[in-house]
Design goal:
Layout (H helix, E strand, L loop, with lengths): L15 H44 E7 L5 E7 L1 H13 L3 H51 L3 H6 L1 H24 L8 E3 L5 E3 L6 E6 L5 H10 L9 E8 L6 H12 L8 E7 L9 H7 L2 H4 L5 E5 L8 H14 L7
Length: 337
């Protein structure tokens, strides 16, 4: 039967060679796609195996091991979830009587983290199973198409093209997922000074202290360190120090502060201004400095505060940092619970 006119023996002049060439081209595309599918399937399978391994590492369980004489026996292998809980219990062991409530709170945080992580991992497992099934179905369909005659191969071209586009899109989404998500069974546990548990990497903290030479920056830092005062600020904050007793350099301070506030990296940073040397006779007051530096205009659109202080005695230092802490709490950066 002619694949073009659908009749037996009546066709004339039909270009079967063209039809065969197109069918062969489609077959070649299908073979290329099949190769991509096999690679894609292997990637999904490998990812799924990693998911299974991660879940096993988190949950732990019983494993059969051999001792030194070759005898097999069952041994409990703790998972990372159990190790994390053990880490929490060990930390609170010495303070158990007075810190029971805090320990239970910390363990609940670990449990919530483990539960959420396992839920996510299991959802990933289900998604990978569905995806693998879809890819396998597509692969089977392609294999069946390869067995068809030229006419049916040509007729299936549009469907195969749509199928290929769908698979390519799924493969791209899978690649993006695999690139952006690190499969890691570890549960890093650290503790704050008030015995709260933090799960995750340690955060780097930066507070920039700036000011003209002689303003008192070093004295302020020395006083804070000497008194062992530590204020956790998990964001970039700027502490600018002004010498209240040096009227002649006030405009220079204004110029430096103005340039600082134009920096892109500090666009959203909190600004704390220490008006230092308030103990010196004739020093400018906080109100005078605010007016002379036009701080309301200069700092428009950002959270800022000017605090009078004396770095030598420590007067005003904690009050300034308390303001900074309250701003971070209000912004949800620090937790006071």
């Amino acid at each position: 039967m002619c694949c073009v006119c659908k009749e037996y023996g009546k066709h004339q002049g039909h270009k079967h060679a063209v039809l065969e060439a197109e069918a062969n081209q489609i077959r070649a595309s299908i073979l290329d796609m099949a190769h991509c599918i096999r690679t894609f399937t292997d990637e999904i399978s490998e990812y799924s195996r990693k998911l299974v391994g991660i879940v096993h590492q988190i949950e732990g369980g019983e494993h059969i091991v051999e001792d030194s004489i070759g005898m097999a026996h069952t041994e409990h292998v703790p998972g990372t979830a159990e190790s994390a809980r053990s880490c929490v219990r060990a930390y609170f062991a010495d303070l158990h009587e007075t810190l029971c409530r805090q320990e239970e709170m910390a363990l609940s945080v670990v449990d919530v983290h483990v539960r959420e992580k396992l839920i996510w991992l299991r959802q990933q497992q289900e998604d990978m199973t569905i995806l693998l099934s879809q890819v396998s179905t597509a692969c089977l369909h392609c294999e069946k198409t390869l067995q068809q005659d030229d006419c049916r191969v040509v007729l299936a071209k549009q469907e195969i093209t749509r199928l290929l586009e769908t698979l390519q899109k799924q493969q791209q989404q899978f690649t993006e997922l695999a690139d952006h998500i690190q499969l890691d069974a570890s549960i890093p546990v650290t503790f704050t000074k008030d015995n709260r548990v933090h799960i995750g990497p340690k955060m780097e903290i930066r507070v920039v202290t700036l000011g003209l030479d002689g303003a008192g920056k070093t004295t302020i830092l020395f006083k804070l360190k000497q008194d062992e005062f530590m204020q956790p600020i998990p964001t970039i904050a700027v502490v600018f120090v002004i010498d209240s007793s040096h009227r002649d350099r006030l405009m220079e301070s204004h110029s430096e502060l103005a340039k600082l506030l134009t920096e892109k990296e500090l666009r959203d940073a909190l600004l704390l201004i220490f008006a230092n040397k308030q103990d010196v006779a004739g020093a400018l007051s906080v109100e005078e400095i605010t007016e002379l530096l036009s701080l309301h205009k200069l700092c428009c659109g950002r959270s800022w505060h000017i605090q009078g202080c004396d770095a030598r005695s420590g007067m005003g230092l904690h009050e300034g940092l308390d303001w900074l802490s309250r701003q971070l709490v209000a912004a949800g950066v620090l937790d006071v619970a």
